[in-house]
Design goal:
Elements: H1 3-17, H2 29-38, H3 44-57, H4 61-66, H5 69-76, H6 83-98, H7 107-111, H8 118-129, H9 138-147, H10 157-170, H11 176-189, H12 208-211, E1 228-239, E2 245-249, E3 260-261, E4 264-266, H13 284-289, E5 292-295, E6 299-307, E7 311-324, E8 332-335, H14 337-342, H15 347-360
Helix pairs in contact: 1-11, 2-3, 2-8, 8-11, 9-11
The structure holds a DNA duplex (11 and 11 nucleotides).
DNA sequence: AAAACGGGGCC
DNA sequence: GGCCCAGTTTT
């Protein structure tokens, strides 16, 4: 038994068991790049509909490069990690201008683009261009850690570098893309994080974790810190004349940057002056600022809890009907149902607005 | 090296 | 409720 046999067994399994995925039906480097970007920290099943819609709307690099960022974000809305979409958009503009709209077939040039890290560079260069680079994602880290019975914390840089070195040694010189995908597919279908299907594994006989009964303990990861919880209060202002709802676009940096949201405040870091409070009091200066002449008394809705990776928002929601005497200034806007569907609305607020629409039948 | 950065699916 | 996911960038 040596490495060459394991690679052969893996590749034969992959040829037989590989899923038919949209980005496996193309050799277009741009399409593969888009798919790899969407798949960052995102499951395959989640990404598929987003990928199909994105490729239909932006079929080549130049169409993406010429798009407005708001439209790119709108197609990304619900996928999360929106910096990915903005970086991809900027990278497309750069490739369009500096590389004649062709994805560079050079690792260093491609890896220099915004949003392209070691994984994405290795994946696109190997899958799209057949270049001999490894692509180390969470699947490969897990599979590799188990095969070699690596007990070290796989989140540590040193462990990742060691695994990358092992992977490079296994790389078939002319079929690195298929090999990388086979490793990832094995991790996604067989060598899963919980209850791996070792009985169906094509490389079981090479796996030291399986031999030692350690698949439940490997890979090891240090526990993550608990996310911080924060109470917030959002306001849903519904126009009495046409039913539109007041929303606003977030700024260019930080969490959910450039995404649309309901106006909301933290109840813990007091914002001065407080635009409104949970008990129903509205700051007249804020009301005047957004052009509302009159507001009905508020009705409280259920609290919405939203978990991010690193924090939790407990969002109290107040619903009010508004009489408007002046259009809302940027970044505020009155949004109807059709506009909401074409705006980049953050998932939490999209959920809240949909719920309010259902309750009020508007 | 650690934290920021989304959201959904699964147990 | 906790863990995980075809990671990258910033601090």
């Amino acid at each position: 038994m040596h490495d060459g046999d394991m690679t052969t067994a893996l590749m034969e399994w992959y040829a037989r068991a590989r899923r038919d995925l949209p980005w496996r039906r193309t050799h277009d480097p741009y399409a593969i790049w888009v798919s790899e970007t969407m798949l960052q920290q995102t499951r395959v099943d989640t990404a598929i509909p987003y990928f199909l819609r994105f490729m239909e709307r932006f079929p080549h690099i130049r169409s993406l490069a010429h798009a407005h960022e708001d439209d790119v974000l709108a197609l990304w809305a619900g996928l999360g990690y929106y910096a990915r979409a903005r970086a991809l958009h900027r990278a497309a503009q750069y490739v369009s201008a500096q590389h004649q709209g062709v994805v560079p077939a050079d690792y260093a040039q491609f890896a220099a683009l915004p949003g392209v890290g070691a994984y994405t560079a290795g994946a696109v260069m190997s899958i799209a261009y057949g270049l001999p680079y490894a692509a180390i994602d969470a699947n490969v880290l897990r599979v590799c850690a188990r095969i070699h019975a690596i007990e070290d914390d796989i989140t540590r840089t040193k462990t990742k570098q060691y695994i990358a070195q092992l992977q490079r040694a296994l790389l078939p010189p002319h079929d690195a893309g298929t090999f990388n995908q086979a490793m990832m597919e094995l991790g996604a279908l067989i060598c899963t994080a919980r209850s791996p299907q070792c009985g169906a594994c094509p490389v079981r006989s090479y796996c030291r974790a399986h031999a030692h009964g350690r698949t439940g303990d490997i890979p090891y990861k240090k526990a993550k810190k608990n996310p911080r919880s924060e109470r917030r209060c959002a306001i849903v202002c519904i126009r009495e004349d046409d039913g539109r709802i007041l929303m606003r676009q977030r700024g260019a940096s930080g969490l959910l940057s450039r995404m649309w949201e309901l106006p909301h405040v933290s109840l813990e870091h007091e914002e001065e002056p407080m635009p409104w409070s949970i008990d129903g009091a509205i700051n007249p200066q804020w009301q005047e600022h957004v052009g509302i002449a009159r507001l009905t008394h508020g009705t409280a809705l259920a609290m919405f809890v939203h978990r991010f990776t690193h924090r939790i928002w407990q969002m109290d929601v107040v619903v009010r009907h508004a009489v408007v005497h002046r259009d809302a200034p940027s970044p505020y806007a009155w949004v109807d149902e059709q506009q909401r569907a074409s705006l980049a609305v953050a998932a939490l607020f999209d959920r809240i607005v949909a719920s309010v629409r259902a309750d009020h039948r508007v």
